[in-house]
Amino acid sequence: MPPKRRSQRPGLLSSTRPPTVKSKHAALSAKATRTLIRSHHQLMKARAQAEAAGDEVRVSSINAQIEAAGGLESYQIASKLGQSGDRGGDSSKILVDWIKPQLNQWKPTFPKLRVLEVGALSTKNVCSRTPALEVTRIDLNSQEPGILKQDFMERPLPSTETERFNIISLSLVLNYVPDPVGRGDMLKRCVQFLTAECPISLPPTLFFVLPVACVDNSRYLTENRLLAILESLGFQLAQSRRTSKLIYQLWNQTGAFSPQSFKKEMVNPGHKRNNFAVVMRES
Length: 283
Known about the structure:
Elements: H1 30-53, H2 56-68, H3 71-82, H4 92-98, H5 100-103, E1 113-118, E2 133-139, E3 148-149, E4 167-171, H6 180-192, E5 205-211, H7 213-216, H8 223-232, E6 235-242, E7 246-253
Parallel strand pairs: 1-2, 1-4, 2-3, 4-5
Antiparallel strand pairs: 5-7, 6-7
Helix pairs in contact: 1-2, 1-3
């Protein structure tokens, strides 16, 4: 008697939908995931440098390398894996936990707090499931319905308070920006999208997540320098948390917006350190 054939399980996703973390990529190890993310960041940085130098041949070559590695889609898959439960989890849970005392003031008769999630990867995270929050999600390459394909730096500036947000989330977004000036511009732009109009006692809030190496092992950025940069934009550090890989911070805008000049200058010498930097130009 011939052996019984195993029944084939149907695919988790139809061929018309983009892959998610439940695809074959879920087999990536944590080390492979970090390597893919790091490689993508390095290529993006190299491309920005080539573009600034006007080297079109180099830009084309780097674009080919990015595509060969799977492009932005593969980077996002790796990022989703990094946020899975066994690899650190959903960063928005930390945000919601930190503002829970204020959220307890909210009632269903109140307007919801508006949240702008830049670099959104999911419509089902803790932030999205919190009744008091109304989340607008944007990303350079939308992975599912409910996430608008948009570059935050090209999003039209708000003309009314209803187009502004009570909270902006930049979870592993600032480190994706390929050049230091662009990172500074992104932080300044956040201020333009925040509003002080809030139904509860929560000031305009910025939440972000960075690889801890960006502030612990950079020649050009330390946690104290990051503090000085954010304080010049009127922010005050409200919460901070570290893991072995990531740093989470919550900033409240309680002061005046008076950006100062922060150049790319050596603040933490060492030949084994990285070159991550945030450059702030005076407005």
